[in-house]
Amino acid sequence: MLIDIQFLPSPPHSYLFSDRVVVVIDILRATSTMVQAMSQGALEIIPVATVEEAFQMAKVFPRGSIILGGERESKRIQGFDLGNSPKEYVAEKVKGKKLILTTTNGTKAFHFVSSGKDILVGSFFNIGAIAKRCIELDRDLFIFPSGDEGNFSLEDTVCGGMLIELITKKGKKPIALTDASQCAQILYQRLGANIIEAFRLSHHGKELINRGFEEDLAYCARIDITDIVPEFKDGVIRIH
Amino acid sequence: MLIDIQFLPSPPHSYLFSDRVVVVIDILRATSTMVQAMSQGALEIIPVATVEEAFQMAKVFPRGSIILGGERESKRIQGFDLGNSPKEYVAEKVKGKKLILTTTNGTKAFHFVSSGKDILVGSFFNIGAIAKRCIELDRDLFIFPSGDEGNFSLEDTVCGGMLIELITKKGKKPIALTDASQCAQILYQRLGANIIEAFRLSHHGKELINRGFEEDLAYCARIDITDIVPEFKDGVIRIH
What is the predicted ipTM? Predict the structure, then answer.
């Protein structure tokens, strides 16, 4: 198995992922929110790029069957039911509902890799389950951190590095790493013992603190609280 | 001073470097070769993107005043005087000459950032001098690793991380680091004690070994063997 990770969230060449398992990571906070929502019983998630699309999409489904969630500049969007703090996504709000979600970085990332075959939703919440699923699928792996407004994201890469570390240690077959995946693994080995501290070093983590979302940092740093593996297929995220 | 580093060798947005000091790094081997050639008395270096351009450019200057150097697939180009092993660039061959150089990654990188104001040529050979110059210039810094055929390059990033480490430790003013520059610094702190080993972990290092250039790895890992600071301006590299 070859494991690669792309450090800048630009559209990757399709040859990099069309035959590979893709794991999309946006720890602060889109993929954390997605995993949380599905673990609390959301039926499916439709990630959309714009606020406009979210409202359009909402009209397609019966009232009461959907939840509108997401953020711009970290904050809940006017007219939306929920923001982008994973802790808002509790069973009493999301169980049995479709979630239409739009965020600054994470939802775009799914569209960049949408032609891939197996696209998994990764976060610290389900990192062990994601590693297990990647080992089962036993194909080359392409990790896609969603980045921070087009830039390299420290926290997403630490999570990608943890996935590499887990697969390298648990997998029974030889693993080949690219220069980038070696770098991500080293970053995890250095910062993984204190993930909240890694968040505090990151640009996006600092921004969330400044905007009043410091609690989300501790919330998103929790490891292996669920074993669900959400998959993105045909525009929709469902549990595998 | 803000220090940023771009991990993928795509053309950066001009706002990232137009007012900043730019340091281009292609350790294996273009910028190592450039620094070596200038330290051995080459008058100037003209980096060109294609072999064709190199031959065209050679016609412009009197015979005997120029040297054609470079590689494709790591090897010397037919009709060229020298390849891309820095150790070929000794005084008896290059002193008083103009060097026209074309390589796979490094020469392209200069053209990506050519509209920048101060563009410095960095390598382990002159890393201390580069750090000193960056501290003197006292402006924001944009480090541009040339990458490995469009991909993230471990060895260039280790060198970029060393530059960040030196400036952070020697500079007297507060330094701000982006997520990417923090990552590069961590990579250097982990791999910098044995640079040849870092080369051996890298894709490009392995490729050079396979192609018979293993000696270049030890050669390019030598730190602070010169204090020259070549600068790229108006298409030409000269010593500051």
Answer: 0.95
